[in-house]
Structures are given as structure tokens and as C-alpha cells.
Amino acid sequence: MKIGVVTFPGTLDDRDAARAVRYAGGEAVALWHDDADLKGVDAVILPGGFSYGDYLRCGAISRFSPVMEPLITAAKGGMPLLGICNGFQVLAEAHLIPGALTRNHELHFLCRDQKLTIENTDTAWTSSYSKGQEILIPLKNGEGAYMCDDETLAMLEGEGRIIARYVGENPNGSRNLIAGITNERGNIVGLMPHPEHAIDSLTGPSADGLGFFTSVLKAMVK
Amino acid sequence: MAKIVVDVMLKPEILDPQGKAVAAALPRLGFTFATDVRQGKRFEITVDGEPTAAQLAEVEIAAEKLLSNPVIENFVVRVEK
Q1: Contact A107/B14, CB-based, under 8 Å?
Q2: Which of A57, A92, A147 is the closest to B14 by Cβ?
Q3: Which chain A residue is nearest to residue B8, measuring alpha carbons?
Q4: A163-192 pLDDT, tens per residue?
Q5: What number is the ipTM of this complex?
Q6: What is the total count of domains within chain B?
Q7: CA A114 → CA A184, B43, B70, distances in Å?
Q8: Residue A55's CATH number
Q9: Residue B11 and residue B72 in contact, taking contact as beta carbons nearer than 8 Å
């Protein structure tokens, strides 16, 4: 099972994402933003960081990288695609998922361990969890406030497409405490906090994040 | 030389924390005139000679595709002498 991890100029978390893939039992394949080649991978992760320095809007320039063209086609065809943090912003800019990520409501960059509840376990990236399960993984972002219009919000709620919500006080002003959402088909997931930084208790606050990576390996065996 | 200017603003219903922070700073300096502040982006695009209608039409497309995110922002294209 090959899982591609894309590196843009300014990406930070590609190594941890690749490590999480190997930890879960998959083969991590490095993909380069300037290369319109998915190298035969079965799934792709857009990791966190500050691609293109967050210039213009977070993810706005990355979204037009050469690698995105085959990636968008493959994801629309059902290939599992996970966008974490900056990757979530890229997914939103590419309109692969609805809404947008905007500046945290208190303006501060946040970096802390954050509790989430997993609300949808039917996606390619969340099937290893149980519905309602609480997990603890790092949250680190400056523009993590999930925004969409009322109609989109009602649609996401009605179709159960909110995959994870923040527990407790709203950390960044996201509507309805949204931490992550999925597309209609459940193969594309965008998540603001970082599961790849929580795959063992030696290097993270928990091993709770590993489930995202074991889920996709299971999804591909099916 | 004429410039094509694109002004991009967050839609009115989108929270603008930067504008709010500026609005909160103004009274600290003794400026009490503002009831609200919204912060946006301005792009100045230089072309050879006077902008043509075709160029302006292309700028409109570029503004929609790249310079703004239509999910959260509105834009206006104009020519400045």
C-alpha cells in the first residue's frame, strides 16, 4: 500500500506524515509539488506547514502546483486524500471540500494539545475510530477558523460530514466547533489538528492520531 | 501609466479579526471616529499602455480564480490613471 506525501516549498510536516504512514504499516512515497506525477500511489496526504509562505491566502498558490492537477482528478475519482492543517487549506482552496479556513478569531497562533471527538467513522480516514471517541492530538495553526455559509453548514450537519469537532472552548472560532470535514463520497478529509504528531507516546501527547493512517490502509484493502 | 487595481474584501458576513484588532487599537490612540473597521487586500497590476477590454476581462477571471477566494471574499476591478 503506497501513500504519497506531497512536499511544497514551505511544507513542514511531510516527514512526520511519512513516518506515521510507515508506523501504520504502509509505504510512504515522497511526491514533489512541481512534478505532475502521483508515482502510482493508492492514497495521498497533503501535510501541514506554510506552503509558499502562506502568501496571498493559505494554500491559494499551492492549489495551482503541477502535482495538484493529477491529484484533483484522482481524488474526484475516489482516491483517498487527507489534507492536514495547511493541507486542509489547500483542499478548501481547490474546492475539493466546501468552505474556507480563516484567521483564528483571537488572532493568535495556537500550539497546544487539543481534545477532539470523532463524529463520522465511515470515511476512508476515520474507520479505525469509534463514533464519539475522544482523541488528544496537537493543534497548531494561525488560520484554522472553519467558515462557510449557513446553507453549507446545514448540509454538512445534515449529511454527517463533520468528521471531528473540538471539545470544550472553541480554540479558533470555527463554526460549530468544526475540526475536520469530508466530501460527499468520504474519500477526501480535511483536518486542522495534526494526527501525524500523535502516533506514539514517546514523541506525541498520545498515540491517538495513528487511527487516521491505519484507517486508510484498511480502506484500500477493501 | 495606467494601473489595473483589484480590491479584495472579506464578505460582510465573514468575521474579520484583523479589522477588529485595528478597530480596537484606534481608540487607544485617541481616535474615536470608527464604529467598525474591515481590512482587505489591494492588487496593483501594471500592463503595457492603456488596459484593453480584453485584458480587463482576463483580470476579472484571474481575480475570481486566484486573487480572491469567492467562498469568503468579494472583489472589484478598476483602472487607475
Answers
A1: no
A2: A147
A3: A56
A4: 999 999 999 999 999 999 999 999 999 999
A5: 0.84
A6: 1
A7: 26, 37, 30
A8: 3.40.50.880
A9: yes
